[in-house]
Amino acid sequence: MKELMLGNKAIARGLYEAGVCFVSSYPGTPSTEITEEVTKFDEVYTEWAPNEKVAMESAFGASLAGRRAFCAQKHVGLNVAADPLYTMSYTGVNAGFVIVVADDPGMHSSQNEQDSRHHAIAAKVPMLEPSDSAEALKFTKLAYEISEEYDTPVIIKMCTRVAHSQSPVELGEREEHKKDYVKDIAKYVMMPGNAKKRHPIVEERTKKLVQYAETSEINRVEFSSGEIGIITASSCYQYVKEVFGESASVLKLGMTNPLPVNLIKDFASKVKKLYVVEELDPIIENHVKSLGLEVSGSDILPRIDEFSPNIIAKAFGREISESLTLDDKIPPRPPVMCAGCPHRGMFHSLKKRKCTVLGDIGCYTLGAVPPLGAIEMTLCMGASIGATHGFNKILGKESEGKTVAVIGDSTFMHSGMTGLANVAYNQSNSTIIVLDNSITGMTGHQQNPLTGKNIKGDPAGQINLEALCRAMGINRVRVVDPYNLAECDAALKEELAADEVSVIISRRPCALLKNVQHKAPLRVNSEKCIGCKSCMKIGCPAISMKNGKAVVDTTQCVGCGVCGQLCPKKAFESTGN
Description:
With 577 residues, the protein is an alpha/beta fold. The chain contains 20 helices and 23 strands. It has a 7-stranded mixed β-sheet with strand order 3-2-4-5-7-6-12, with helices on both faces. A 6-stranded parallel β-sheet has the order 15-14-16-17-19-18, with helices on both faces. Strand 2, helix 2 and strand 3 form a beta-alpha-beta unit. Helix 1 packs across helix 2 and helix 1 crosses helix 6. The mean pLDDT is 95.
């Protein structure tokens, strides 16, 4: 039976069919749907871990216990999980262990566009790259075979276009797999003496995997012309086929680490001109050059952003398909926090007090854009607290009374706790604001250890954030409602003036949560409104100006009342009884 599937859903189906028993992940676009889809199979235990490192370590434990295991993350998440990954290459696995990393060329939802193939090369583990949903399912099952045959974790690299595009997939049946755990200190205890003996095993394994890459069906030659030969992989394969059709021969690589040698040399010998088409870094191209072959690619193609058929056609001097256009110019639609977003009130208070705000990863990063313009730095998950600590240690009294860190509840559990421990231990006078919207918002409302629910929405262990902060040595911990601007203003004034570390928990559930009950929308009494635009300072998409007066889009308004607190004439009124 065939079904039209997203690439991510196909990965999930592959996990089910491969007999996977344990899945632990941290949500990150474009990888999130894999774990959400596999959760629908009751045969598979799934969980959201606090971060990617914990997810990978937990999945490794399940593999060690003898059950096929899996974890998924986006490219920057693999940075967090790199510590266990690199040593896991030395230990090998028991039952099969597969890791998905989803890269984001073009940075649709990311702070960089790194190339995760570097991790596979440095960790010396095999990497597969599907180019459509059918291959996503097929490669997932194959990855477990490779993992167990060669005693190695296997990485599958997805990208935004493969993860979020649809193509037909042939469904199969689930096959159960089970291995016994056998105590083996020399294999699994990576003290220096044991690790030194494991490294030669890794190098020998790589040699065997190169031989596998030479003959595996996932590395295939599609020969049609001796004029041009193109080596490519992943979504670039689809673009190459669309642009060249049968006018160029293609070596389509499904395994991008380790790369074959003889297969590439043989392909190159049959074409007059050899090219590599790959997004971001010239990894395949450099490998081809190391074989002494003349090749082009990075000299004509960009090394930034994601490719498209038109980009490739232009680079090769081929005719570019005419694109459909609209006669009317479409106005830009920059991202904005939702109507009723609980973060908006706190950011308004921060801007009002002219605070230096060091931010973090989440939808609250939009606090950096006008009209709020509050956040001045965003680096990576958890960095806001560590950066604020260093900032205040250097500038001292010059910054302590006006510099804050803002971090979401899920991000705090991911990697903010260690930053707070550092602040408490090394005693910088820092103010930390945890923007607690009771969910992992940016990636689509996933649960976290503070919500009291597991990945299926069932009751789970719940961490008390206030108690946790106090246990870490923070004496000043207070909770405020960000819909109450006076309360936010007072809390900021008092905590910034304090001569010790403090934590402000800005707590109000995400306005988009299904269980949140909103008040009736507001309307503007046009007779009271003087057109001062004070209400526009918070950047709520439900408020606009028309004929010099503020108006409210009642289809968006959730009745939070923040705008009404800014209006000097009290022109905002409820539409309810």
